[in-house]
Structures are given as structure tokens and as C-alpha cells.
Design a protein that fits this description.
Blueprint (H helix, E strand, L loop, with lengths): L3 E2 L5 E2 L22 E2 L11 H24 L10 E3 L18 H4 L9 H4 E9 L7 E9 L7 E7 L10 H9 L3 E5 L13 H12 L7 H16 L3 E11 L1 H12 L5 E5 L5 H6 L4 H5 L2 H10 L7 H11 L9 H4 L8 E6 L11 H13 L6 E6 L8 H15 L1
Helix pairs in contact: 5-10, 6-7, 10-11
């Protein structure tokens, strides 16, 4: 079978798919339906000086991002407290969210365990991550009562925009059935942290007006650092085996949390990784802007513009997520995850996460994993014919990745 060249020295074999391979997609020869991965090679011993030099940008990025995260905390030094909660009977969904079955999540591999519901342990908690109402982090944890292992691997699951942790229950149950401790949270201004169906959008507008919060991605990343503090202290969790994944907004949360906090040992962002500056430079920002358009419309008015343009987009990102389209963007933050196992899963036709915008981040990630001597720990899957949608195969690929590196 012929091999198709991709970025740098990596090669990828074609995968059988419904669509013909004559439709070529981006990334210098990366075709729809291809996996970007590394060839199977013997691990090499990297000189210490080269490893330390390669690690410097990652250390600097973590330090800089942590500084930004701390800059808008009312009091970043609050004690981490745990409060018991109760199951949520009427979850809050926002915007125009259409509820129904999630075939993708329900396709997650699940062990057939007799009396599964009776053996399932559900924990509802609240963690204090900072002062103020949004500093109360709702957490849902599912695990099996009977386990031969004292310490088990854990995975944090993060929901998409306008949904909540309860939406993720099919995934949590599937992973719990396979011996994981499955964890989900409500991101900022979602779920139990929302008071109406417009809370998230109102928070974005407020952040633009006042510049005192970062509801788009970064505030939840702060919560995930505090969640890491809690999970690594639990006696039933192996602190070296904590994974993180999420869909769309949750994929962005997973990506940035792993970039700043290396306790997240295995990382799978789903339809979330994108190049924010690339989108601005190539006039491909519209789909992402449309997902939270209200804040950009407010900025347009405040800036005296006739329409939303690149200047408006840049100013909004700088205000509500400083550095998102510059020093913390994908070309810098994705390689910072190395050498931990990282699987990026996107749709080849996703307008919010254009595949062409990942060319530089992927090239740099390949170099980072290559320098660390573990190319096999990085992979990008671009699913053909798929836009901004999590599919059953994406869920299955994520499951396989976690099983490979956490079990």
C-alpha cells in the first residue's frame, strides 16, 4: 500500500473510508481519512542538554499562562475545600441546545457487568477554587464499588458549550464500567453555575465590558488546576494516571489544562484544537465567532464598527482570553504537552477548527515528541466528511487511546 507523505519526517498509511481519496485535504499531503502518527521506531536516548533546551518553551508557557490565570482571581490562595452535594434532577441547558440521545457518547465501549447500576458509586461534590459564586465547582464522579485495584486511573470529561456535566453521563458510566474513576465538572457559567439559559453569553459580554473575568476557556482552566489538586489527593486514584478529554469547548479546556498542568498525563481534545491567530490571518474566524456571537456584536458597537471584522475579533480575544491568539495559541501550547500522550481528534471539514490551521501546531508537536524520543505518543486524526461534530468513531478512538496509556 502506498504511503502518503505528511509533515516533516512522519508518514501516514491511508485508511479505508466511504469517501474517495481523490479529495485531498490540507496539511501538505494529509488526506481525509488519514491518521497522522509516527512510524514505529526504537526509542532513542536523547542527550540531557537537548531535552532541557526543548523543555524550556513549555516551562515558560506554563509560567506565563499561570500568571494570566492568577491575574483575574479575587483570591487565588483560597483553601481547597470539599462539600458534599446531591444529584442534579433538572440539569441546566442553555441557548438553543436540543436535547436528545447522543449516539456518539452512547457508542463508547462499555463492559457488560451484572447489576451494574447497583455497583455504581455516584459522588456529587463542590470544590472551592476561588472566592465568589463561580469559585464553587460542581463535580460528578462515577466509579465501580468493587475493584481489585486500590488506586485506579481517572479521566476528566468536559462538556461542550451550553451543556453540563450531566450530559456526559453515558461516557462516565462506560468508563466506570471499565475500571476508571470518571469525573465531570460544570464549566464556568454552565450547569449548576448558571442561573438562566443566557448566563454564559451574559458572562462573556460582561468580561468584554469589565475585563475582570475570563469565561471563555481560561477561568475553567483555573478550576481544572484546582481539580487536579483534589484528584491527586484521593487515595483511590493513581496520581500518575489522570487523563483529560472534552468535546468542542470542553476540548479546548482539556487542551489548555494539559498545557499548563502536567498532572494531566494523557490528553484527548475532541473537535477543540484550532489556530486562533491562523484563523484571523486567513479570514477563517467566522464560524468560531458565530458560536458566541453576542460578545462580538457588543464589541462591534463599542468599537464603533459597522460590522465584525478582524480588529474586533483580536480585541475580544485579548480582552476575554489574553494571549489566546498569540503566546498561548496552538503552535506554542500543543507542543508544550509533550512528552505526555496526546491524541487530537477533529473533523476534516470543521469550520470552527480548520485543519489548515493545525499545520504549524502539528509540525511543532511532531518535533517536540521526536526530540523526547516518543513519537508514538502523538497522533492527529482528521475524520473525513465531518464538520464540527463529535462522532462515534472519535469516542472510540479516544477510548482506545486512554486504554493504551492508562490501563
Amino acid at each position: 500500500m502506498a504511503l502518503a507523505p505528511v509533515l516533516l519526517l512522519a508518514w501516514v498509511p491511508p485508511i479505508t473510508c466511504a469517501r474517495p481519496h481523490s479529495h485531498v485535504f490540507l496539511l501538505r499531503g494529509l488526506h481525509a481519512g488519514h491518521y497522522l502518527t509516527a512510524p514505529a521506531t526504537k526509542r532513542t536516548c536523547i542527550p540531557r542538554r537537548k531535552m532541557e533546551t526543548a523543555a524550556l518553551p513549555a516551562v515558560e508557557l506554563r509560567s506565563g499562562l499561570l500568571q494570566v490565570l492568577r491575574s483575574r482571581r479575587c483570591n487565588p490562595e483560597v483553601s481547597l475545600t470539599v462539600e458534599l452535594g446531591k444529584p442534579v434532577t433538572h440539569p441546566m441547558y442553555q441557548g438553543n441546545t436540543i436535547l436528545g440521545r447522543s449516539e456518539a457518547m452512547e457508542a463508547c465501549p462499555k463492559e457488560n457487568i451484572p447489576d451494574f447500576k447497583e455497583k455504581l458509586i455516584e459522588e456529587n461534590l463542590y470544590l472551592t477554587t476561588e472566592e465568589g459564586e463561580q469559585g464553587r465547582l460542581p463535580v460528578l464522579i462515577l466509579s465501580l464499588r468493587e475493584s481489585p485495584r486500590k488506586q485506579r486511573p481517572a479521566i476528566v470529561f468536559l462538556h461542550s458549550s451550553y451543556k453540563c456535566k450531566e450530559w456526559l453521563r453515558p461516557l462516565l458510566e462506560a468508563y466506570a464500567s471499565r475500571g476508571y474513576i470518571a469525573v465531570a465538572i460544570d464549566s464556568r457559567y454552565h450547569g449548576e453555575r448558571a442561573s438562566s439559559t443566557n448566563t454564559y453569553l451574559e458572562a462573556l459580554v460582561s468580561a468584554w465590558k469589565k475585563g475582570d473575568t475570563m469565561p471563555f476557556i481560561f477561568d475553567t482552566v483555573w478550576d481544572l488546576i484546582k481539580l487536579g489538586d483534589y484528584l491527586t489527593q484521593r487515595e483511590d486514584i493513581d496520581p500518575a494516571k489522570i487523563g483529560i478529554t472534552g468535546e468542542s469547548l470542553g476540548g479546548m479546556h482539556a487542551w489548555f489544562a494539559a498545557a499548563v498542568d502536567n498532572r494531566y498525563a494523557v490528553v484527548v481534545p475532541i473537535i477543540g484544537v484550532q489556530g486562533f491567530k491562523w484563523a484571523i490571518d486567513h479570514d477563517k474566524w467566522q464560524a468560531r465567532v458565530d458560536s458566541i456571537k453576542l460578545v462580538f456584536e457588543e464589541a462591534q458597537i463599542d468599537l464603533g464598527k459597522k460590522e465584525i471584522d478582524t480588529e474586533v475579533v483580536k480585541k475580544v480575544w485579548d480582552r476575554i482570553a489574553p494571549g489566546l491568539d498569540s503566546q498561548f495559541d496552538a503552535p506554542y501550547s500543543v507542543p508544550a504537552i509533550a512528552p505526555r500522550p496526546l491524541l487530537i481528534v477533529n473533523g476534516a471539514d470543521d469550520p470552527r477548527c480548520p485543519l489548515a490551521g493545525l499545520e504549524t501546531p502539528v509540525a511543532r508537536a511532531v518535533e517536540a515528541y521526536k526530540d523526547a524520543g516518543c513519537l508514538e505518543k502523538f497522533q492527529l486524526i482528521a475524520e473525513p466528511g465531518i464538520g464540527h461534530q463529535m462522532t462515534a468513531s472519535m469516542v472510540k478512538n479516544a477510548s482506545d487511546w486512554f486504554d493504551k496509556f492508562l490501563k
